[in-house]
Design goal:
Number of helices of chain A: 3
CATH topology of chain A: Nuclear Transport Factor 2, Chain: A
Radius of gyration of chain A: 16 Å
Shape of chain A: globular
Largest sheet of chain A: 6 strands, mixed
Mean pLDDT of chain A: 90
Strand order of the largest sheet of chain A: 2-1-6-5-4-3
Oligomer: homodimer
Order of helices and strands of chain A: HHEEHEEEE
């Protein structure tokens, strides 16, 4: 599958759409076709290189459903041929234990090449705990 | 304080040195002097902009000591005027409860400007839990 994304946002929209659909090939078409890409999902080790990234999402989609996320933009850095998007991802799928899903930070980095913009880094991190449980330095 | 870093690694070395020394001004001199910078330390909310980044490290150093980290490079992406470094940071300071310190992932993004390379994003994320406690998708 060959697709061209004219803006970082086009690539980002396609990424979250493919995630929701559980569409592995659609999702992989958003990632750059180079081996310097990296992906860090919650509770996962860092996946580096295209085969490792393919493996992560193959296992994720093996559960049989996509991942629906509500995405809130927190800010972005545009710098030449690289765009860095900070978002907050709130899972919309119900969790097995009925707990409300926890939002996580996401950082998406896109690079412009001859084929348009592609994802080169996706990285999640926990959001801060509630104020009463935050470390003194974060209050 | 005005310093010039000729490579992303020079900036990175200065960052971790200043962190170890608890040297606020030295540390801030590594960050770019623009308002699109962002910093996400463990258990903290995302800090965006230079005043917020200054505030995070002012509070961190108010504990009265620096943070000594053993830094292992996991990989990096060099793309024109932006360099992305993935590292694993292992705290060397003893924790108050005597627990062994937990390593975290760190992503440092540097941008080249007229004054050399400066840090624009620092972001931490937890490393994966031990294999027995990892989600099915990460095994």
């Amino acid at each position: 599958m060959s697709r061209t994304f004219d803006t970082p946002q086009d690539a980002e929209d396609a990424y979250y759409d493919a995630l929701e659909e559980g569409n592995l090939e659609g999702l992989l078409s958003v990632w750059d076709e180079t081996d310097d890409i990296s992906c860090l999902l919650p509770m996962h080790p860092l996946a580096q290189g295209r085969p490792a990234v393919r493996d992560v999402f193959t296992r994720l989609f093996a559960r049989g459903q996509g991942i629906t996320l509500s995405v809130k933009h927190l800010g972005w850095i545009d710098t030449g041929d690289v765009a860095i998007h900070h978002v907050e991802e709130s899972p919309q799928n119900k969790s097995p234990d009925g707990q409300p899903p926890m939002a996580v930070y996401g950082t998406n980095i896109y690079r412009r090449g001859t084929g348009g913009w592609r994802l080169i880094v996706h990285q999640n991190a926990p959001t801060a705990p509630p104020a009463g449980r935050m470390p003194p330095t974060a209050r």
